[in-house]
TrEMBL record:
Annotated GO CC locations: extracellular region
One Gene Ontology molecular-function label: lactoperoxidase activity
Top-tier EC class: oxidoreductase
Protein name per Swiss-Prot or TrEMBL: Peroxidase
Protein's organism: Macleaya cordata
Length: 325
């Protein structure tokens, strides 16, 4: 009987480990009893918005990223107000607020005061990736919504012009290593950016009168056509040249080939450590190395989504995501 008992115990422990995520005190299926339809409601809401506008997917992913990098993953980026985090310069182009508000409104009808806005953000980011032909994963939930939202604290968000040393420092400050850095930047496989954020690389880089020499020459000409020197700085350009709607490894191939749109992205190829990670990820998506990015992205997202989780009196469950209770 002892071997059978031990076997059963092992199975029980494995089940417990699969349903509980140690990071941040979060766990999967957190709402299984208190609000069984929570995750399905978020999913259906994201699907509805995605069907009418697929570009909302990278918007939701970026929204979650920006939330977690300031005050932790606590929904502080959702708060409105002149001095709120949402109005900081790095956050002015954020999108997807209406998706989170839509899901929250439905959940407040189903389960009043139960599901946090921070959790809705984390779930929506996962669903956005999945709908873009990317991986899906079990999102550990149980976050509380923060009670602070200050635009001044958003100054440490990663910037499109950051050198690798600066990117590395900003990610390390959040407990994220080089592997996480490259993996999470890989989210740009479905992103877009404004000409304003990279045009300086095309015409007078470091006041030389030439383009950034790390840009593939033919690609630089393509970008100059898309973003004339005196053109509309708000014009949107895909960060992934080739498959901007699919969550795949093409972004890493672009970086390898000198076709990174943002300076911070292309700099991944100029550092010995990050270059090796990019090189590994640039394999075909259906092959071993491609699948590794698929898998590693899930891990890095769970890790990032556990930054600065609020507990006890530090947080609350907001009734409306854009307002403190």
């Amino acid at each position: 009987m002892a071997p059978i008992f031990m076997h059963s115990l092992v199975i029980l422990l494995m089940c417990l480990l699969s349903s509980v995520q140690a990071q941040g005190g979060l766990k999967t299926d957190f709402y299984s009893s208190s609000c069984p339809k929570a995750e399905a409601t978020v999913r259906s809401t994201v699907e509805t918005h995605f069907k009418s506008d697929p570009t909302i997917a990278p918007g939701l992913l970026r929204l979650h990223f920006h939330d977690c990098f300031v005050q932790g993953c606590d929904g502080s980026v959702l708060i409105t107000g002149s001095s709120a985090e949402r109005n900081a310069l790095p956050n002015l182009g954020l999108r997807g607020f209406e998706v989170i508000d839509d899901a929250k409104k439905q959940l407040e009808t189903l389960c009043p005061g139960v599901v946090s806005c921070a959790d809705i953000l984390a779930l929506a980011a996962r669903d956005a990736v999945d709908l873009s032909n990317g991986p899906s994963w079990s999102v550990p939930t149980g976050r509380l919504d923060g009670k602070i939202s200050s635009s001044s604290e958003a100054s440490n968000l990663p910037s499109p012009a950051d050198a690798i040393s600066v990117q590395r420092q900003k990610f390390a400050a959040k407990g994220l290593d080089d592997q996480d850095l490259v993996t999470l930047v890989g989210a740009h496989t479905i992103g877009q950016t404004d000409c304003l954020f990279f045009r300086y690389r095309l015409y007078n880089f470091t006041t030389t009168g030439n383009a950034d020499p790390t840009i593939n020459q033919a690609f630089a000409s393509t970008l100059q056509t898309l973003c004339p020197s005196n053109g509309d700085g708000s014009k949107r350009v895909a960060l992934d040249n080739g498959s901007p709607a699919d969550f795949d490894v093409n972004f890493f191939k672009n970086v390898r080939d000198g076709k990174g749109v943002l300076e911070s992205d292309q700099r991944l190829w100029g550092d010995n450590v990050t270059r090796e990670i990019v090189r590994k990820y640039a394999g075909t998506f259906s092959g071993l190395l491609g699948l590794r990015f698929d898998r590693e992205f899930q891990k890095s997202m769970i890790k990032m989504s556990s930054i600065g989780v609020k507990t006890g009196k530090e947080g609350e469950i907001r009734k409306i995501c854009s307002k403190f209770n």
